[in-house]
Amino acid sequence: MNWQEVCEHPSLRDLPFKIELDEFGRIIMSPVKLYHSFFQVRIATILERLLSNGVALSECAIKTSGGTKVADVAWVSLPIWAKIKNETEASIAPEICVEIISTSNTKKEMLEKRQLYFEAGAKEVWTCNENGKMSFFNVEQQLTRSLLVPEFSEKIDI
């Protein structure tokens, strides 16, 4: 399957969990807990407040060489948004891609996703663990703070 087929398939429209595609077009399903939803909304809200020259997105489908990956939260500048806003999946990754770590996520999986997002054009990839601890990465290394949004907190209180 491709992402357009997944989005248009009647039996997949209202699934209560997150789905992605691997590089072979197979559907990967991940159940999420309530803290996951809380952090998604909180991070998107903070990004919208701190950055006025773009938009925050939740569940942002991104076309990567490893299949369609879905960033839990993303922030995209207005020029990139103008290019991708009508696409089924983003052909260019938003500048910031955020993954909220679930207990089922492995370090290897998160490393692979980071690499795929950077390859697709992301400038920073952030992670948020189940306790709200934020980690920030650019293509070269882990950062102490975000370079794109230095005022973003290192911890989100739940």
Would you mind describing this structure in some detail?
- With 158 residues, the chain is of the alpha+beta class.
- It has a single domain, classed as tt1808, chain A.
- The protein is 27% helix and 29% strand.
- The chain has a 6-stranded mixed beta sheet with strand order 3-4-5-6-7-8.
- The chain is globular, with a radius of gyration of 15 Å.
- The termini are far apart.
- The model has no long low-confidence stretch (mean pLDDT 88).
Q: Give the rounded overall mean pLDDT.
A: 88
Q: What fold name goes in the CATH topology slot? A: tt1808, chain A
**Total separate domains:** 1
Described by strand count, sense and barrel closure, the largest sheet is:
6 strands, mixed
N-to-C CA distance: 37 Å
CATH homologous superfamily - what is it? tt1808, chain A
Task: Count the DSSP helices.
Answer: 4
In N-to-C order, the SSE pattern is: HEEHEEHEHEEE
* Helix-residue proportion: 25-40%
Radius of gyration: 15 Å
Highest CATH level, the class: Alpha Beta
Q: Main sheet: which strands, in order across?
A: 3-4-5-6-7-8
- Point out poorly predicted stretches: none
Describe the global form: globular
CATH hierarchy: architecture: Alpha-Beta Complex
Class of secondary structure makeup: alpha+beta
Strand content: 25-35%
Instruction: Give the strand tally.
Output: 8
Keywords:
single chain; 158 residues; alpha+beta; tt1808, chain A; six-stranded mixed beta sheet; two-stranded antiparallel ribbon
